[in-house]
Amino acid sequence: MGKATKRTVTIRDVAAAADVAVGTVSRVLNDHQSVTKQVRERVQKTILTLGYQRNAIAQSMRSARTKMVACAIRDFDIPAFASYVKAAEATFRSAGYTFILASTANDKDVELSLLQTFGQRRVDGVMMTMSDETDPDLVNAITHVAMPIVLIDRELVQSVDSVSADHRAGARQATEYLLSLGHRRIALLVGDPKAYPSRSRIEGYTEAHRSFGVPVDPHLIRDRLLSNEATFRETAALLGRSERPTAIYAAGLDTLSGPLRAVRTAGLVVGQDISIVSGNDSDLAELNTPPITALRWDRSEMGRHAAEMLLDRIEHGRQSPPRRIRLPVSLVVRGSCRPA
Amino acid sequence: MGKATKRTVTIRDVAAAADVAVGTVSRVLNDHQSVTKQVRERVQKTILTLGYQRNAIAQSMRSARTKMVACAIRDFDIPAFASYVKAAEATFRSAGYTFILASTANDKDVELSLLQTFGQRRVDGVMMTMSDETDPDLVNAITHVAMPIVLIDRELVQSVDSVSADHRAGARQATEYLLSLGHRRIALLVGDPKAYPSRSRIEGYTEAHRSFGVPVDPHLIRDRLLSNEATFRETAALLGRSERPTAIYAAGLDTLSGPLRAVRTAGLVVGQDISIVSGNDSDLAELNTPPITALRWDRSEMGRHAAEMLLDRIEHGRQSPPRRIRLPVSLVVRGSCRPA
């Protein structure tokens, strides 16, 4: 296992070691019947022993498929993506595809560059999020990308397939629940409205207020909060106001620990001094004392649907019109909210 | 944005639209100075307008680098990997590399197949875990892989670089802490001893017992627990025994919620009826009531080190001897353990 053996093994090495011509190795590789069984077995054994790998890049110039699909999500450290990605991968693996994941950092330039890289590397299909559904460059790149694409939780680009959750209905349900408990100052912590989930959540929150005849205080809507550090800071600021909110709806992905820390730091108790609804169910929400009321949707189902749509496009083409699947969101009521 | 525009744009389309010969487009692409500024600008504008992409697969047959590195971890849904992966990616991104992630499902065949795919796709480097450090096929494949490789938290294969945490010292510290509180029946929940982390944790646990002169009860060591479902089941079984453990050391990655649920289901209270140490710090450990005493190491640092080692190998070759970096593990004492 010395270092010398790590040099790339070529077809010439195989031929030399098996004591045959290069053309014979090539015929064995291409399954020609003109090679005797004895020679074929010797060559195959040599290929295994030396660890020779055919250059797949050269091969894929001849064959259309790379049997590789790529998924680009905002960040690797968002647990809420994990079950989605895991289900998508399982679907692709069982169809014989390699599934690779990349992160966009929610940055337009990274998204554009990944799309280009995936195109250059000839992946067979892409599933991805978009930092900004209204950005013309991104929309153009996604619409014209060479391979089939499925958008994850994005709805504005009408010309490609998408799988999303019904965040507007979920947000409306969460907000109406808090309003029905008598809360009138409900803080909404949310991500970037340039993307579908946050935009829809603000709509749902606003609709719920309208249906209850309660005016929305714009100071209570805090957007572009994409991390726990950001939701911690904003919650702390809100709790420091003279008229502090009586309830917090932490709507973004994986942003519950920020508010929980801020409430604790302020010396308040969840479910007594302040009510909290989490926009995404998690172990943290379920195992908290008290357990946190949370919205949930089937993320594995979402990943499976996305993978199946993409597989279908890869294998049957893009003639049929774009499809969209929108999954329902439901509220799991636990012990983190009390009447105002 | 009709579907017809999605056909791949070829160099011929660019030449036709720019009203030049194919050779002229090629010369512009290859930065030949023989093209007039005026023509060059027209061709470049046409390339942008049509969205033409050079076939990178053909290109990479000529150039050695793909500027892509791959990382293979056990599973996408283990939050403990996230900060590692994120830090590694940041390092590669700033060096101009695309970083892709794949999951092995902790399965030897998937690991072998990914190594082959990465080789065929000509990634410039690989960082990965291994399901079994003693498996000859895996060891052989990793030792002979065509590109530089860094192992993540694996130490047995001596011929390649690795970055790991000092799990033995961590496990010893956690166990000695529980022994010093008077616990004599400490359950150890751990992963697969065929890989370095679990093997080392069992060693550390055993060493601590030896140093306290306390015999190890083999029934209290439960291994191959790689999920919260598994740790839930084993904890429930342990708590149902007539001589139940007084303390649980949940040593695996991301396996704390299992024991927490099982303790709650049994009607017991953490920190009163039973003591718990988590082998990995997390939001769940920190925000639990009571907060859970936990081991921690700098996972971002680990990802950064691995990425820097791999970058160095990619850019400066594999002549120097294999390097290993082992990071310290420390115990954060919180409120989940009490004297036995």
UniProtKB/TrEMBL annotation, chains A, B:
Protein name: Transcriptional regulator
GO MF annotations in UniProt: DNA-binding transcription factor activity; transcription cis-regulatory region binding
HTH lacI-type domain segment(s): 9-63
Pfam families referenced in this protein's UniProt entry, alphabetically: LacI, Peripla_BP_3
Keywords: DNA-binding, Transcription, Transcription regulation
Organism annotation: Bradyrhizobium nitroreducens
PROSITE patterns with a match to the protein in the record: HTH_LACI_2 (PS50932)
Superkingdom of the source species: Bacteria
InterPro entries per the UniProt record, alphabetical: HTH_LacI (IPR000843), LacI/GalR-like_sensor (IPR046335), Lambda_DNA-bd_dom_sf (IPR010982), Peripla_BP_I (IPR028082)
Record SMART domains: HTH_LACI
